[in-house]
């Protein structure tokens, strides 16, 4: 067990959706949280990272900094997705070893698994088949992050671990028209439909694919749990273990926001893989389970979206 009491925990990427949720969650622990702005430390620069770690001497690091984006962003900026992610994780993991950081938790994502991995996806599916080509750049960098943690554990005995979360949502999500994921995109569209009295909301694809969604506050709780209780080479999936169809998801958003119109599903747009669900048995076996049900999580996210919109805080709201 890694005791957080009195420890200095650096949350890398603290302004992001995951990083800010981790900072909120760590506020309940008796530890000091360290953060640094990108303008002071660009994580792509090794000397910046080494100096920061050497000066601040964190006891633990949660590595939630990454270049993140949807299919379009990945497809049009492949060099940035592979370079930024490889270099950020390499710089931090290497500097953490050099400074003797006691624990490091690296964050990947479910896109590390093969495109046609059997569902639900177990941790063992890693590197058993070809990746989804559109985000292979990002996925390869994330797989390298898992391998870095394993290699530093094997060669130097570092307690570096990896978590692979499913699709996330919650406060701080990206609601941009061009680069958001399905759930924030639905929240935005339905919210605007109610505001403008629209009778139809268009949704890409048939509505039949099934996806899993984890609230980011649940993820933050899982990460703190893993920091404390998990030490091993194997990466661990983090999810709810349940999925919904996109049509059911849209209806839940409509019910929460009070939209009474209809959805039109544009079947000419690609559906992607029919089902994407994590097997979360290993983490459950250690004693952690997601707590927030989807409807409550969506209602809480819609409240955050309305408030942030009024305060001009929604990311890329103008796009
Ligand atoms: N969002 C999801 O659905 C999802 C699902 C599974 C896994 N994950 C994983 O969770 C992690 C965090 O994702 P997120 O959704 O929280 O992403 P995010 O909201 O885009 O946050 C990423 C953070 O990384 C920071 N960052 C990026 N490049 C940097 C650089 N060169 N120097 C310093 N800071 C830099 C950003 O700083 P600025 O604020 O300054 O830009 C931001 O704070 C990622 O590893 C991702 O793979 C996310």
What brief labels describe this structure?
single chain; 319 residues; alpha/beta; Rossmann fold; binds NADP nicotinamide-adenine-dinucleotide phosphate
Architecture per CATH nomenclature, i.e. the level-2 architecture of the domain at 8-171 and 213-241 and 273-293? 3-Layer(aba) Sandwich
Percentage beta strand: 15-25%
Strand order of the largest sheet: 2-1-3-4-5-10
CATH superfamily of the domain at 8-171 and 213-241 and 273-293: NAD(P)-binding Rossmann-like Domain
What's the CATH class label of the domain at 8-171 and 213-241 and 273-293?
Alpha Beta
Shape: globular
Backbone structural class: alpha/beta
Average pLDDT across residues?
Answer: 95
- What small molecules accompany the polymer chains? NADP nicotinamide-adenine-dinucleotide phosphate
The level of helicity is 40-55%
Family: Belongs to the NAD(P)-dependent epimerase/dehydratase family. Fucose synthase subfamily.
Binding site for substrate: 189, 204, 211, 271
Pfam families: Epimerase
Catalytic activity: GDP-beta-L-fucose + NADP(+) = GDP-4-dehydro-alpha-D-rhamnose + NADPH + H(+)
Note down, in words, how this protein is organized.
The protein is α/β, with parallel strands linked by helices and 319 residues long. It has a domain at 8-171 and 213-241 and 273-293: 3-Layer(aba) Sandwich (Rossmann fold). It has 10 helices and 13 strands. Strands 2-1-3-4-5-10 form a 6-stranded parallel β-sheet, sandwiched between helices. The chain has a 3-stranded mixed β-sheet with strand order 11-8-13. It has a two-stranded parallel ribbon with strand order 6-9. The longest helix has 21 residues, at 78-98. It is globular and about 60 Å long. It binds NADP nicotinamide-adenine-dinucleotide phosphate (NAP). The site of NADP nicotinamide-adenine-dinucleotide phosphate (NAP) has 23 residues, from α1, α4 and β6.
